Amino acid sequence: MGGFYDEIIADGVYKYYINGEWKSLSGKTQKINNPSTNETAFTVTACRKEDVDAAFEAAKKAHKSWAKTPLWKRAELLHKVDAIMKENAQPMADVMVKEIAKPAKDALTEVVRSGDLIGYTAEQGVRSLGEGKLLVSDSFPGQDRSKLCFVSKLSHGPCLLSKIAPALMAGNTVVVKPPTQGAVAGCHMMQCFHKAGFPPGVINFVTGKGSEIGDYLTLHPLCKAISFTGGDTGLAICAKAGMIPIQMELGGKDACIVCEDANIELAAKNIIKGGYSYSGQRCTAVKVVLVHESVADALVEKVKKGVDALTVGRPEDDCAITPVISESSANFIEGLVKDAEQQGATLLQKYKREKNLIWPLLIDNVTAKMRIAWEEPFGPVVPVIRVKTIEEAIDHCNTNNLALQGCVFTENVNRAIQISDAMETGTVQINGAPARGPDHFPFQGMRDSGIGSQGIINSLEMMTKTKTTVLNLDKPSYTMG
Description:
Blueprint: E1 9-10, E2 13-14, E3 16-18, E4 21-23, E5 29-34, E6 39-45, H1 49-67, H2 71-87, H3 89-100, H4 104-129, E7 133-136, E8 147-155, E9 158-161, H5 164-169, E10 173-176, H6 183-196, E11 203-205, H7 210-218, E12 226-229, H8 232-240, E13 246-249, E14 255-258, H9 264-276, E15 288-292, H10 293-308, H11 327-342, E16 346-347, E17 353-354, E18 357-358, E19 361-364, E20 381-387, H12 390-399, E21 402-403, E22 405-409, H13 413-422, E23 427-430, E24 443-444, E25 446-447, E26 450-451, E27 453-454, H14 456-462, E28 464-472
Parallel strand pairs: 9-10, 9-12, 10-11, 12-13, 14-15, 14-22, 15-20, 19-20, 22-23
Antiparallel strand pairs: 1-2, 3-4, 5-6, 7-8, 8-28, 13-26, 16-19, 17-18, 21-25, 24-27
């Protein structure tokens, strides 16, 4: 694995990180399977409730001094993380290939992009968090100029989250609990923060079983804010978290609306890119195509041709379609496909599956009575619903409880804006596939797709609370004549 990462593993088990130290537990472990083989690829520590307590206690103890650390110093440390991640990117990318079946080239790109995001957060944080506000009382009717209000931004305290860089830049301390499939890549990332020289307790990292420590983490009395990326688990967290700031990026059933005047070649290209990259396992993947019946045949033909050309196989070989994250995910996807087929949908490729590897599938003639019209497959399967009017497509989009992103293809810019205004979803891409980023753009979902707006600028804002100080002055002795 290489010397840089040697201290994060002992006897084949990845450690956890609390108060500036990598730690081990005897006999408490959790297996992580390689999605390509369904065999154990890694073993991580299964932290206990007392380890969660230790992580939050360390974060609480470190918070006061970290919150007083100058912005430039916080930014300097984050820039070090950016550089260290890029210098040690390949081992982290190799782990992602085995842990989440990310194609090798995409995995390396994602590590580099993560470093870029951390560096940009540092720069933006210095600018936005360094700004205060001064209000004067006589701007409100009936008031004289006898009060000055100073508005500043303070950190929350220990936070449980996945948006690490904005929280740290805002002066918060952090407890990180990664998903099971992703825990080892998380260990590698934590080592980059460790080597950058963050003070003990500022950032802490626990691994383990969500069934054992998940609720304990989210309900912990020392937790002052939560930022989470996921699906149904996020909804459960929202129901339990109580009176603390919450930022959620949850599931999506991202609708692609194709109008009768669309550039069909462009639409097809983006449906293939948006629906099948990383085997459709992205919250912003195209998950249902709503196409006007007058151009449906032409669109389906072009998309089918592109899907048939996708390479299928191992992530190590940089194939376009690789195994989905787990056997349970593959079973869920298969259930959606079988339901659609039994109810009369047209499978434009033969359904094929080997363990967790599902061949890409385009499903035509899907109707609203089929599960796949509404549920998120999170796999390389894209349903096509033919509509008589674009209003029908908009109504389908707005009826779903998932509303993260969507897209619309039309050559008429006025119509594009009108359709976007009518779509009740967090982000609408015009003549482009749904996508996350650039990361300084606002990013949010509606209904069950999330709470709060993300993007670097908005995440920095969420990671702070507003403090006002009012200076009461002597009443003015002059009068206006």
